[in-house]
Structure to design on (220 residues):
């Protein structure tokens, strides 16, 4: 069977109010700010000449609104609507949804001598940070690393199995900050600084085939 290889353009959604307030918004949501809308429009212009055979996003409004703006700016006869999937959501933060980001990672990491997200990731990994947060969650409903990737592997399989994608296709994915970091940690071969969060509206590129996923650029 011929192996299909395609280019995946992963865009972090535009700035939201929770971004301004430094609050976790995994499965919860807040609207795009005026700056977030303008940023999505700028990203749309950057990608306007790229033909996308398929587009995907999570079922959060911040991702769907960003997808509509980016695809609305496209001038290369691209697909008009994204496929929307809950499997492509951000990490679920459980009890800490909507909580201050720095406070939350202190609660998760301090018992391990690691008071910040950067400290946890530098010593261990983003996956371990997920595990620490699930441990700290009094309801233990935050996603562990294993639970997160069980869900996201389904989302990646949905993308790979799309009948719209051909060999050499360009595919758009509107995603989230921690989700982008998680992809880069898993598929970036250690080449990128995963302690640096991707900017709202930034583009990270991957090549995807039946048997391999590889990051080719991060946070551009």
């Amino acid at each position: 069977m011929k192996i299909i290889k395609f280019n995946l353009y992963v865009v972090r959604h535009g700035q939201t109010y929770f971004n301004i307030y430094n609050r976790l918004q995994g499965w919860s949501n807040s609207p795009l700010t005026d700056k977030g809308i303008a940023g999505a429009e700028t990203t749309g212009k950057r990608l306007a000449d790229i033909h996308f055979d398929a587009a995907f996003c999570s079922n959060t409004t911040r991702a769907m609104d960003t997808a509509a703006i980016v695809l609305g700016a496209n001038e290369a006869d691209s697909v008009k609507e994204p496929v929307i999937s809950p499997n492509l959501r951000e990490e679920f933060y459980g009890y800490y949804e909507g909580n201050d980001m720095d406070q939350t990672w202190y609660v998760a990491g301090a018992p391990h001598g690691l008071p910040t997200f950067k400290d946890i990731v530098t010593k261990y990994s983003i996956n371990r940070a997920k595990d620490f947060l699930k441990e700290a969650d009094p309801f233990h409903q935050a996603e562990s690393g294993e639970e997160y990737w069980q869900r996201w592997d389904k989302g990646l399989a949905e993308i790979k199995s799309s009948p719209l994608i051909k060999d050499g296709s360009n595919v758009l994915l509107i995603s989230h900050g921690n989700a982008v970091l998680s992809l880069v940690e898993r598929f970036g071969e250690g080449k990128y600084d995963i302690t640096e969060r991707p900017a709202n509206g930034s583009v990270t590129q991957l090549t995807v085939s039946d048997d391999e996923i590889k990051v080719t650029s991060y946070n551009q």
